Amino acid sequence: MSKTAWLTLCASGVFTCGVVYYVHTSQAKDRERLREGVIIDIERQQQKKRQNVRQLALQSDLTKILREQQKQYDEDDRRQRENGSGS
């Protein structure tokens, strides 16, 4: 085998090994990024769920306050009508 053919064979072997290594590491990194994406999505969903629960609790508290205010308003209105119509 001539020296040129030997160098060409070695160069193509090194190039092939480099390409295989690059593709392997690239695929491994892509799989890791996909896993991280799933984990980030799960965390985002859990955070959104916690935020929704906090908002629901706040809405519930506000509803209770408004109902109490409405009840007080209705009682005051009823008293005024009774006092106004009874005089």
From TrEMBL:
GO cellular component: mitochondrion
Pfam family, one: PET117
Compartment annotation: Mitochondrion
One of the GO BP terms on file: mitochondrial respiratory chain complex IV assembly
Protein keywords: Membrane, Mitochondrion, Transit peptide, Transmembrane, Transmembrane helix
Transmembrane segments: 6-23
InterPro entries with a match to the protein in the record: Pet117
Record bears the keyword Transcription: no
Region of interest: Disordered: 68-87
UniProt KW Transmembrane helix keyword: yes
Family: Belongs to the PET117 family.
Protein name, as recorded: Uncharacterized protein
